[in-house]
Amino acid sequence: MMFISIACGAISGFHATQSPLMARCMTNEKQARPIFYGAMIAEGIVALLWAAAAAYFFGPNGPVDTTGKGGPAMVGVIANEWFPKSIAAITVLGVISAAVTSGDTALRSARLIVADSLGIDQKPIQNRLLVALPVFAVTAGILVYSLVDTTGFDVIWRYFAWSNQVLATVTLWTATVYLSLKKRPYIIALIPAIFMTMVTSSFLFVAEKEGLGSFIPRQAGYTIGAVITCIAMYVFFRFKMRSK
Question: Hey, where are the domains in the chain?
């Protein structure tokens, strides 16, 4: 549950889909290590800073109680308590811009996926609008639901988190196959692929609200997840043997 709830924390399928976009900005493959690895380290540092701040301010003995006020209130308290007003404003803008740019990238990616699946040329502006407007409408509907229903955001987040981690799992298996075909050390991608397969598959049978956890015992859910993971491993190693 933790690895699903904290989506994008340690691994993110959404980030994986943006790798090709970043790759287009490089002029040489050697630039990949400082760009991708550097971005990973930088984002990890930012995440640790916010986690440390939240643990201090909103822990059991913390100085602030914003229970029920949501994430924006927490960001505002942390920014105003730790920084001068000028830097606090920049901090809040940074958080807002992160959400805005993520939404922009997600919607653009969704438009391109739909257009590519339906074979719609995206050069004419009218074709872009033809695909973009329905995507915007669905997104607006989801946002309205998250605001109207008290548990709406929690439900949406869990489904998003699961699909995000599934995409990350697929990316890891893809990287494992690629490295194997290129005769490179594939174990660095195989181990997290196996772990994430277990996490995402067992979640379907363990989660009570989003999955089948209300109908089957928890231990049985983990067992089913382990079986699915073993099947995925078998398929990979059989493919590896045939590709020799």
Answer: 2-82+149-242, 83-148
- Nearest-angstrom CA–CA distance, 175 and 179: 6
- Is residue 176 within 8 A of residue 236, CB to CB? The reply is yes
Contacts 24+ apart (CB under 8 A), 223-231: 225/198, 225/199, 225/201, 226/198, 226/202, 228/197, 228/198, 228/201, 229/194, 229/197, 229/198, 229/201
What single-letter amino acid sits at 164? N
- Token pair 């990890």 is found at 44
Single pTM value for the model: 0.74
Strand, coil or helix: 203: helix
Instruction: Report H helices in the chain.
Output: 2-5, 13-23, 32, 38-58, 71-82, 85-118, 125-148, 152-181, 187-206, 218-242
- Taking the C-alpha atoms of residue 146 and residue 111, their distance in angstroms, rounded to an integer, is 22
What Å distances lie between residue 186 and 74, 189, 198, 208, 238, CA to CA? Answer: 41, 6, 19, 35, 15
For residue 130, give every residue at least 6 positions away whose Cβ sits within 8 Å of its Cβ, in sequence order, or none: 120
Write the burial class of residue 165 (CB in 10 Å: 0-12 exposed, 13-18 middle, 19+ buried).
Answer: buried
| Contact status, residue 243 vs residue 231, Cβ threshold 8 Å | no
**What percentage of the chain exceeds 70 in pLDDT?**
89
Q: Dump pLDDT digits (tens) for 120-161.
A: 998 899 999 999 999 999 989 988 888 888 777 777 878 888
**What do you get for the CA distance between the two ends of the chain, in Å?**
38
Token duo for residue 11: 């691994």
